Amino acid sequence: MKYVSTRGLADTLSFEEVTLTGLARDGGLYMPASLPKMSFDDIRALRGLPYAEAAFRVIRPFVEGSLTDAELKAMLDETYGDTFRHASTAPLNQIGANDWLLELFHGPTLAFKDFALQLLGRFFDHFTARQGKRLTILGATSGDTGSAAIEAVRACENVSIFMLHPKGRVSEVQRRQMTTILAPNVVNIAVEGTFDDCQALVKAAFNDHAFRDEVSLGAVNSINWARVMAQIVYYFTAAVSLGAPERPVSFSVPTGNFGDIFAGYIARGMGLPIERLVIATNANDILARTLKTGSYAMGDVHATISPSMDIQISSNFERLMFDLAGRDGAAVRAYMDTFAANRSFSFAPAEYAALKDLFSAARVDDKETSATMQAVYKASGYVADPHTAVGIRAAEVCLPATGTPRVTLSTAHPAKFGAAVKAAVGVDPVLPAHLADLLGREERYQTLPNDLNALKALMRAGGRS
Ligand SMILES: *Cc1c(COP(=O)(O)O)cnc(C)c1O
Can you give the residue ranges of the Threonine synthase N-terminal domain (predicted)? Predict the structure, then answer.
């Protein structure tokens, strides 16, 4: 498989190169040059397979030329066999006559990001060893990416990681899951700013090509194609469990950077019968407004009780724009230039129509999120985390109550957001045993201003200030 940049100017790369590169040199994101298709029979044959085997069949065409079948199989068996605490890896839990939750929080750091990052860590180890190279990972986190990425690379021999989080804007459990990992290749940085500031610093570092080469920068954010790729798998396994390919399924996806839902869009493009994809946002509703108006216009970042979605600029949306614009890199560049100058751009009418044809969207504020946590708890005894509750509510708003099954992606364990859960339903969710002593562990992190030069200096010094 070959990969092309959404902005059309960067070199075409292999899967191995794309995985180690992250952001394309022209500022774009990498996309597969063409989408592999799964036939009706291919999809039906996934039924009943162990998760790792289903993953092998879905992922195989994307890594062709970079990994042998045996290498890929071994990595998938290790990733999904050993590090997830649930026998079915990504179980479905029915919470209503036509409503299911796809529980994606049974990995080591209790959020769906483990699905992709546990695998990405293994890709990094494999490819850096093969090339005799070191990799410096720079990432930004609104909470869950950081811990999942650190957990994924803490034991990697040739990788060090610098993880930025917005100071005071992640939950205590989220922060401690990052800062209590005291491995020498892990550097945590609290930035005096928002998540978008952190993400902008990462982008700026990647766009500084001399610096990028000097420290051999790599990415763990969902600008890295391998992350999106890993997330395609659970759309297939969930839909097949509920009757696909004979019966279509709809998904509601709590959305921040548009990575997780974009994986659903790719699954549909590969042939999975997904009827609708619902973009579920909190008060940071740039995507919901885009669906309503056809204009992608930046707003202010609001702090919410679903902090992993407190994002205004959704990096992966550019991947969808690329497809909407007929895979025309020049058109994407023009949109992104307009956005950089005006903080907004408007889609051409045909593109806007195509967008609405594919997706629905709803904005769910904190009050509605809490009310949804309460209603679900009352009706079924199920304790949902606030991000999941945003998804459940958006499914109710956007999808018919009967007919096609409604599956909401449950993106985090409730104990990661214990305070919001307790406030809504009166129950204090318990952390799983492997994290039970988290609040007593030693923390290590540094604080930096929102300043690229300060960051570069710290990285050049290997994290010692
Ligand atoms: C990261 C995250 C999201 C948003 O996922 P995107 O891929 O950025 O859209 C939603 N919920 C939780 C719990 C997360 O950690």
Answer: 2-80
